[in-house]
Amino acid sequence: MDLLEFIAAEATGDLFPWAAQVRAAERFGLTLGRVEETALTHGLMPARYQRNRQTISVERQLHLFRSRAVIIGSGGLGGYLVEELARLGVGNLVVVDPDIFEEHNLNRQILSSPALLGRSKSAVAAERVAEINPAVTITPLQVAFSRENGREILTRADVVLDGLDSITTRLELVDLCRELSIPLVHGAIGGWYGQIASQLPGDDISPSLFGSWSEPRGIETRLGNPSFTPAVVASLQVAEACKILLGEGESLRNRMIFVNLLDMEFDEVLLEPAPAAVGE
């Protein structure tokens, strides 16, 4: 019996159970990801995604599995980005963060806990993904993103998600994604408030991101962040990334959503497309 025959025999209707996926990996000496891809390629939905299938077809689930998302930052926003992308079934994740968990992270960063204080955020992200969806391949990088290392980090990325807290680094990320024609989903938070926008190839959202704000870090340095704001904004970012990867729906291209959870208001602002540089 080969792998495909095993998968077909173990399937229940059009679903392939997790226990059978584990047995297949052990029996044939394969990764869980390889087994998952084989099942999806032959029209079977891994049972863990069965609640996706009324929204995301088997073919689109396969596309997500074959996609590569790079998450820059694994703290307040980034932890939720990693969690949700892994559960969604995006098959290749790169998580970039130079920091370790500190006590002030415990109020809002989903990957943090008292037992993990002092641990690398990117390493903990990798352990979390291995726990919740071992079929996903994750590459943790305990480095600070910069223009100097950015091209290597973003290699083969299908989408990039911004979980940063430095305006300077954010603008470098926006600029590099524009140069490399990689879709970017921006998110920022502060107190009760947040903002989300997408930059698709050919766009430049940098003039619209922070207005007249001149400090190197965002407004969260003044307002802090409660537990719920990063969860809301990161979820909207993941929805944007999913649409971009699947080519479905209407993205936030040339518009930004401002989130005001204190008054429960969501405002849309149209962004003026930046003029193309000479030669573009």
UniProtKB/TrEMBL annotation:
It comes from the Bacteria. Residues 49-272 form the THIF-type NAD/FAD binding fold domain. Pfam families: ThiF. Gene3D superfamilies: NAD(P)-binding Rossmann-like Domain (3.40.50.720). SUPFAM superfamilies: Activating enzymes of the ubiquitin-like proteins. This is HesA/MoeB/ThiF family protein.
